[in-house]
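Problem 12. The chain below contains 278 residues. Write out its predicted structure in token notation.
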Amino acid sequence: MFIDTHLHLIYPEKLSYPWLDGFEALNKPSRFDEYTRRAKRLGISGCLHMEVDVAPDLIKAESELIEGLAGGADSLMLGAISSCRPEAPDFPEFLDWAREKSVILGFRRVLHVVPDEVSQNSLFRDNIKRLSGTGLTFDLCALPHQLPLMADLIDHCPDVQFILDHCGVPAIAQGEMSPWREHLSDIAQRPNVVGKISGVIAYADAENWSLDHIRPWVDHTVSAFGPERIIWGSDNPVCDLGGGLETWVAVTHALTHDWSHSERDALYRGNAKRLWRI
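Solution.
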């Protein structure tokens, strides 16, 4: 059974997603009831919602929407990774609000859509450092050439638990192992980082990828972090760009078929349960 640590839900009638205006393939509803129907058939027993970069004034509304979904009868929803703006002076007040919301288990600020200077700004870094000792995590979503900047941020916040999304966003379709491979290995040496096995089928050649195309990228991530520091996410509905939720679950089973039971359990759910105490 899986715990899906990276589910995106899109409710355009309730929230605004400015970035989707330029992304036709994903610019449509993705609702929890449809995900739940498919997830239960695939052996997904719980999920965490990953923020979808809503308009900044709707960040709290997105978390409150997920809070309502988590409260439903027999809901698979276990918590939310909220959007945030650590570069903003009012982040401490936002953090105080979030800590009162039991549904919020962590935060993410997508960093490959903003200038590199954002994550290097002292206000941003010091605000992330405020997560120390709170039990709240921070997801890193950055491109391979930005991973050294992420390493700098991690080093500034040694007591914050970081999660590296999507195996470090490798350029799989282009076959560019370097510098991704070296930078990911470097980040993995930091004990307060977990690698998320997710997203990779969306980064492959949509028409021509195969299991053999995906395997080297996942294998290197697993080797770098080790079986006790990896978690699994669907990246639904973004995974539709590479075949969909069912395909990604099947790929995961194929990639791990020769793992031990304990190693599969750690990736599929055990590490996530321990990380967020869920």
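Discussion. The beta strands are 2-7, 44-50, 77-83, 104-108, 137-140, 162-164, 193-197, 230-232. Students who got a different answer should revisit the alignment rule from Section 12.3.
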